[in-house]
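Appendix C reproduces, verbatim, an entry submitted by the partner laboratory led by Prof. M.T., so that reviewers can inspect both the input and the predicted structure.
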Amino acid sequence: MKNKNLVALVEGAVMVALATVLCFIRLIRFPWGGSVTLLSMLPITVYSIRRGVKWGLLAAFVFSLVQFIQGVMDGLFSWGLTGLMLIACILFDYIVAFTVLGLAGIFGNKSFPKMVAGTVLAIFLRYVSHVISGAAVWHSIGNIWEAFYTENEWLYSIVYNGVYMGVELILTVAVTVLLLKLPQTKQLIVPKD
């Protein structure tokens, strides 16, 4: 039992490290936060599918802390947010947003549609978290994205976050489907009982 836990823990650490490296490969970077990365969510979602929600949430939470540290290094505290806004930002843009990726394995790993549905759900929940933060925290900065202007902070947040998260969702799900369809990689993701 201890050996299985150690293997799962090491796998989780490797997946967090891989996800972190992939975060630095940004295909598109938005001016006010958010970017399209080279499949940075994939290692966490695959790990959750492989090991289950308990392990997935643990790895995703560690990943959220790494993302928060990266956000601090990128100047999170230089935005002049109030204390309450900063707490909301930390929760909804980092802790909640990245921890929910650990829910990708919520439907188990025995059915292809359920594994894909779990991945979609996890990424969608991350999107919802960013939308809440965008409307509650970042609206105070105003409509700063020149490509889209509206007085409605919720609509603005839905569209702004939807653009990059939509691309991330499509890329991650497409590669997840590919990995689960190939027998060689499916054997690595779905353990034999």
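The CA atoms of residues 112 and 181 lie 9 Å apart. Additional entries are available on request from the coordinating office.
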